[in-house]
Amino acid sequence: MRRDRILLATTLMVVFTADLYFVLLPKLQDFRRGQGSRCSCGQANSSLPGQGGLASPWLSGSTGYPRDSTEGDPEDGGSKLGRLFAHPLYNIQTPTLGPEERLLQAGKLIDYYDKKVSRWERHMVLYNEAAGASNVTMTQQKVNFDPEVSWLKFHLGINRYSLYSRDDPAVEQLLRDMHTLPIISTDYTQDEKALKGVCDCEQVVKPSGHHLKLALKMKDFGKAMFKPMRQQRDEVPSEDVFYFVDFQRHNAEIAAFHLDRILDFRRVPPAVGRLVNITGEVLHITHNQDLRNVFFTSPAKNTCFFSKCLYVCKTEYAVCGRPDALEGSLSAYLPRLSQAPRVSIPSPWIRSYTFDGRRDWEVNPFYCDTIKQTYPYNSGNRLLNIIDMSVFDFLMGNMDRHHYELFTNFGDEGFLLHLDNARGFGRPSEDVMSILAPLTQCCVIKRSTLLRLRLLSRPRYRLSDVMRESLGGDPLRPILTEPHLLALDRRLRRVLEEVERCVMQLGEEQVVTADFARSTDPPPAATT
Amino acid sequence: MRRDRILLATTLMVVFTADLYFVLLPKLQDFRRGQGSRCSCGQANSSLPGQGGLASPWLSGSTGYPRDSTEGDPEDGGSKLGRLFAHPLYNIQTPTLGPEERLLQAGKLIDYYDKKVSRWERHMVLYNEAAGASNVTMTQQKVNFDPEVSWLKFHLGINRYSLYSRDDPAVEQLLRDMHTLPIISTDYTQDEKALKGVCDCEQVVKPSGHHLKLALKMKDFGKAMFKPMRQQRDEVPSEDVFYFVDFQRHNAEIAAFHLDRILDFRRVPPAVGRLVNITGEVLHITHNQDLRNVFFTSPAKNTCFFSKCLYVCKTEYAVCGRPDALEGSLSAYLPRLSQAPRVSIPSPWIRSYTFDGRRDWEVNPFYCDTIKQTYPYNSGNRLLNIIDMSVFDFLMGNMDRHHYELFTNFGDEGFLLHLDNARGFGRPSEDVMSILAPLTQCCVIKRSTLLRLRLLSRPRYRLSDVMRESLGGDPLRPILTEPHLLALDRRLRRVLEEVERCVMQLGEEQVVTADFARSTDPPPAATT
Predict the structure, then answer these.
(1) In angstroms, rounded to a whole number, what is the distance separating the alpha carbons of residues B293 and B165?
(2) Which end of chain B, C or N, has fewer beta carbons within 10 A?
(3) C-alpha closest to that of B74 among B524, B465, B473, B519
(4) How many other C-beta atoms lie within 10 A of the C-beta of residue B338?
(5) How confident is the model at residue A14 (pLDDT cuts 50, 70, 90)?
(6) Which pTM does this prediction carry?
(7) Is A292 an 8 Å CB contact of chain B?
(8) Are A114 and A145 within 8 A, CB to CB?
(9) Cα distance from A206 to chain B (closest Cα, Å)?
(10) What CA–CA distance (Å, rounded) separates A3 from B335?
């Protein structure tokens, strides 16, 4: 409990300082500037919900866009990303974690990994004999047990606050390892296998591209989900394509990891780009004959593969290397469900996934009142976490968040995992306001989230700039085109405007929720 | 027989004049220019097959590229298309046709049409009652029987030489009618209906796009096949896409009609572009509930429809209006199979339609020797007709000519119909030499075809220019982009080079076949 109290005190200090700096100071300066601008605000206020109030000077001030001289030169050189991560808001001390606040026990995981390595070595002998007998090309890799590997550290670092800590060196190492380590085995992912034998289009909402992802096992036994490139960086999906049949974009998967980290959520598993040789690093090392069977050579002599469900008649859906090299995103696997069970819950703001269906939230302006009274959204942080996620999804334009997942170990108060982000970053010119419905309908937001959003809206820490810098570290840079990066700034402004609209309607106390204190509640007993 | 003799005499006169002008005159001029150029020809000859001999002056002369002063200014204004159609080669008099040389008897067809109009009027009363009862929007059109309609004249004009005569005014009228007349009814085409209930991807080689075509009935009871726009004019299919899953291009269907007419084959049914309102002119007037069911509104509020076979999971394959207007090609229907039976025969140069299969013709350099000894290619014009078709397909880059059709009424010597050309005009930068295999492997070509190809390779009648002019008359102009038009000239040169290569190997007598005389053989008795 003493640790909690120290954390509470530190947190409140930071919140107070930030509040003073971002909210009170600009308001005081506004006040000193006199009546002129106040007048225009008065006019703007009445028409705000309709106009969005983008150009209102009062809004500019209070949404974190102070243009005062204390800002300094926004282009004063140096790393904006470094400056962001050095900011007090990104340096709130996390308490030392007790064993019940960690997702996994080191001993169990290391034992499991050790056994897997031994079994792999035994199986490889058999596989090689079988491959030799059936004349199949098979590349073999030596594997070793090493308790210092990055994926193990990543798994052991997952705790009740986030998937990884801000300064965890294992994350950077994991990105490097996923990019460089030899791949020793490839297979369909579990959800692909679950579909085996039931490739019925009528029953699957979104088969296109969806099932082209693969599970890659690296030499250090780390696993990554591979999503191949389906679309050029500057291609924009047709406006007539429904979100649920849109391509999955490997670069969106990578950009989502960076955006989530910059928003300080840390709920997206590390993701990195890699140029994969689909012949040598996929076809020749898979033990799955079904997977081998979907490879073919295109008329242009490139190696291609397609989804099993769309066999023969759907080679348009195939992806092809040039001639073997194919870009893709590699996302770190989370611990196995047997080690760390997760639950998948439909989002209360799920879309209808049909041509013309409409969900209650789309037609009922008081939808959130019902949700607020419904378990598990009627207490704790769950609704605020949903709203965090909606801000994250709105910034990248991802309409496809039908479910969310959380680790059952951390009970109802666990953080929401932001998995499967490949349908983000589609149309940079469009702001899909309905993605923000949880925020705009409920009019609540965590104070910590709001403060970070305001920070990122300032020229010194401008979201597009820190994203550009962060993505510049990926091997497949550039990950996002400029229109996508600039869309982030525009959308961020719209989020802050929506918050401002709520504050004006309901008052800051109703809207902006002090969340830091709550997150230090003792963790509930694990449910599994 | 007398008529035949007149035709034979006229034809031989024209051939002789053309030969004199295109072959003998340039050769004489070459000779007069002295030894210099002859020397370089001697060198070029030995390496011709390998190099293609594109730059050889001797080839230039004999492939119809004389650059002598008698050519006149190639850009001397006026209509090149008019000049082409005024050329003697395009003015060989067709004999008066006997009744057995026409496809249809006027009386029978007019009776049939009259009955259809009466039945339509009766049915419309019933449909309107049913539509009113089930609250379905139904647009009604008054129809009249009129023996002067253009589609009727087109059908009655089909004869043993071609689908239409060069100067038939009914063709221009038919194009105008298909473009402007109200559409009174829409439905799936017969082959679409034949698939009903067996939408099994594994059994259909090429379902994509293939089944989005519709049958439109016009106010004058003429019928047209509608192929909607799937691709922008400047879009180029990926090199990894197999020809048999390539999109069907409405503009290729239109351009193919013009190309076929310019080549003087006249074996493609008239085709014209039209901006169709898919709500008012398709959805609201169809009596087919299945067709109504595939319409939906896209996220961008456009009206769209998709193929029944690809229901739900394949809305990516849908086509959409803006919001209702959709470009498409309208190709005139041929007479019903019950009136004029046709037979569909696999091309001897059919492709394998699998990922890696290879047909005999692709690996056996002596394939044509076998074909030449096989019925129906061992006598008559059939092989020469196939070679005409391969030249036509090569010029537009159409790899999808798996079958050809002919009217059984005209027996073995009937002309080949050049139907279904929508997979032409894909990649303008590529010349798919394998399409020319019938010509390059058999080394024969009709003299009449060769003379026209040579004419079209001359600046005065340049193929790209006459095509540009001809396509300029279509309501959806421009139909082809400049790269596609210029590709025609390049490909035409390659055809002439291949003929030249054959002539050098085998001599002109072996290669260039006098076809005019043969086409005046008396028609065989109708087989059905």
Answers:
(1) 42
(2) N
(3) B465
(4) 7
(5) low
(6) 0.80
(7) no
(8) yes
(9) 6
(10) 89
